[in-house]
Design brief:
Elements: E1 2-9, E2 12-23, E3 26-35, E4 41-44, H1 52-68, E5 72-73, H2 74-89
Antiparallel strand pairs: 1-2, 1-5, 2-3, 3-4
Length: about 90
């Protein structure tokens, strides 16, 4: 499971990626962030593997916090663009 979020404000153009990844019989929540187009800094929210349900709670909280700060999910952007194209062609 992975999400990409974007934030743009004035000269700021950031990307944030969060992912649940399998590791050693459990799951970890990793992230990467930085200026869009540059090398991203990486990190983890889990110091050791956890059950999937625990990883999902951490992941959901992380994505929710980023959205509260103004980040927009890439999937939401695609949906908005598709909707606008459908309006234009209708």
């Amino acid at each position: 499971m992975q999400s990409t979020l974007y934030y743009r404000d004035g000269r700021s153009d950031k990307v944030y990626r969060a992912a649940i990844e399998p590791r050693d019989g459990g799951y970890v929540v990793n992230f990467a962030y930085g200026r869009r187009g540059s090398t991203l800094a990486t990190g983890t929210k889990t110091t050791s593997p956890v059950y999937f349900d625990a990883a999902r709670l951490i992941y959901d909280k992380l994505v929710r916090e980023k959205k509260a700060k103004g980040y927009i999910l890439a999937a939401d952007i695609r949906d908005q663009l598709k909707f606008r194209r459908e309006e234009v062609t209708a």
